[in-house]
Specification:
Belongs to the cysteine dioxygenase family. This is cysteine dioxygenase. α3 runs antiparallel to α4. The strands form three sheets. Strands 5, 7, 8, 9, 11, 13 and 14 form a seven-stranded antiparallel β-sheet that branches. A six-stranded mixed β-sheet has the order 10-6-12-4-3-15, covered by helices on one side. The N terminus is likely disordered. It is an alpha+beta fold.
Length: about 300
């Protein structure tokens, strides 16, 4: 509990919640005195005036473990425990850590980040016909050198273009609406394939629709669809929660690169180059070419006004 909340509740101690035992003591004393006065009146005995005794205020401490911890705070605490001190490591987290973060994110809903308070601004900003192209908004809940927790808003039918997360692990969960996500990984085995015009061969490993019921999905530095694209649904605006570890950093050479994908037509030599049958069929392969940040991409940062998190 923060200091302002403690003051609002009349408590004189910040931090854990304290309960006054004085009120309980007064109630018990009053109840006991009433019983004695009743018996005395029935017996006709003279009333005795009890001497006023000095009472001591009792403070009963409620352990923090007994207080409900909001889902967002649990997520922040877990991220601090597993990501801080990593020194910007590019190694993906262990499977048990991935399961832990996914489980905590699955419990975070729109109300936990007070999504509805920002929805009015988001809707007004992207009112029909007012903004073309639409504006994507980002609300950073917590930023540090080891991880970032943020909420992104994508207007209906808007596109977050194909981009990467070099050396990062990204956990994502749709909070409201829906999004179609396409994700690519580089074809590294048996080797990296390059073509003219700085094109590199990639394999599409993710191509599906996500909703709040889909739960949390994860991309890793070299798998899971590190280069990905979001397209918001046709019927509603989309908002999703991200945990990025480590975050983008110019000093650490983790910068965002945008790509243009194009179909891959394999020549005969590629057919015997060690690609699997699955890779060669089904349109999974594409050439990715680095491009500048799209001119029509507009992202606005919103201040976070949701529940205070203790980082």
């Amino acid at each position: 509990m923060g200091r302002s909340a403690a003051a609002a509740e009349g408590a004189n101690v910040a931090g854990p919640k304290w309960l006054r035992g004085e009120d309980l003591l007064k109630e018990a004393t009053a109840a006991l005195s009433g019983k004695k006065r009743k018996r005395g009146a029935e017996d006709g005995a003279p009333r005795r005036v009890a001497k006023r005794r000095r009472t001591t205020t009792l403070l009963v401490r409620v352990p923090m473990a007994a207080m409900a911890v909001p889902p967002l705070q649990r997520l922040v605490d877990a991220c601090r425990a597993v990501f801080c001190g990593g020194g910007g490591s590019r190694a993906p987290p262990a499977p048990d850590i991935v399961r832990r973060i996914c489980g905590l994110m699955d419990k975070v809903g729109p109300d936990d980040v007070e999504l509805w308070e920002d929805l009015g601004f988001f809707l007004n900003t992207n009112a029909a016909g007012r903004q073309n192209p639409p504006i994507i908004t980002c609300k950073n809940i917590l930023q540090c050198k080891d991880f970032t927790i943020a909420v992104f808003f994508i207007p209906l039918r808007a596109v977050m273009p194909l981009h990467d997360h070099p050396g990062m692990t990204v956990f994502s969960k749709v909070l409201t609406g829906s999004a179609h996500v396409e994700g690519y990984d580089w074809v590294r085995r048996p080797r990296v394939f390059r073509a003219g015009g700085s094109r590199t061969l990639a394999e599409k490993v993710l191509d599906r629709e996500f909703t709040p019921a889909s739960g949390t999905w994860v991309l890793f530095p070299e798998s899971g669809g590190n280069m990905h694209r979001f397209v918001a649904g046709e019927d509603a605006h989309c908002a999703f929660l991200d945990v990025i570890a480590p975050p983008y950093s110019l000093a650490e050479q983790r910068t965002c690169t945008y790509y243009k994908d194009s179909p891959c037509e394999l020549c005969r030599c590629a057919l015997s180059a060690g690609l699997t049958e699955e890779q060669r069929s089904g349109g999974r392969l594409a050439w990715l070419r680095e491009v500048p940040m799209p001119r029509d991409l507009r992202v606005v940062n919103l201040p976070y006004r949701g529940p205070t998190t203790i980082a």
